[in-house]
Amino acid sequence: QVQLVESGGGLVQAGGSLRLSCAASGGIFSINNMGWYRQAPGKQRELVAAITSITSGGITTYADSVKGRFTISRDNAKNTVYLQMNRLKPEDTAVYYCNAEAKVEGQMLYDYWGQGTQVTVSS
Fold first, then answer.
1. pLDDT tier for residue 105 given thresholds of 50, 70 and 90
2. Which of 2, 51, 92, 99 allows an S-S link to 26, with CB 3.0 to 4.6 Å?
3. Hey, how many other C-beta atoms are within 10 angstroms of the C-beta on 15?
């Protein structure tokens, strides 16, 4: 089974920056799309940013609320996806989850999730 581990969350003041990382491991044969989701208390989980495989063009997608402030990227050699978050706002406060479409040798492509990392932005 594939395991995703997030890191980089924490407490920052409004206007500050954080960089989240998510490393995948567990006998991975290949990884297709990767992305970041977030969920605030009392709200539904929402897509923050996504990126396709490098061979598919590395196409990125962002939620309107983070366009111009967040940047998603990936390093295939390290099976890692990143989320650079700049000019953070209190409304960005949430648990951020890493997502990956990955294939283990001998298995079909499957959707995996990380355990989540807390991001808190104070005003």
1. confident
2. 2
3. 11
Where do runs of H (alpha helix) occur along the chain? none
For the chain, how many residues are written? Answer: 123
Q: Residue 86 carries which DSSP code? A: -
Supply 97's token pair: 């989850």
* The pLDDT value given to residue 1: 83
Q: State residue 26 phi and psi, 5-degree precision.
A: 115, 50
Q: What is the rounded distance in angstroms from the CA atom of residue 73 to the CA atom of residue 79?
A: 11
CA 2 – CA 118 distance, rounded (Å): 22
Tell me if residue 54 falls in helix, strand or coil. helix
CA 113 to chain centre: 10
Report the alpha-carbon distance of residue 81 to residue 4 in Å, rounded.
10
Q: What is the pLDDT of residues 1-57, one digit of tens each?
A: 899 999 999 999 999 999 999 999 998 999 999 999 999 999 999 999 999 998 899
Quote the CA–CA distance of 90 and 14 in Å, as a whole number. 6
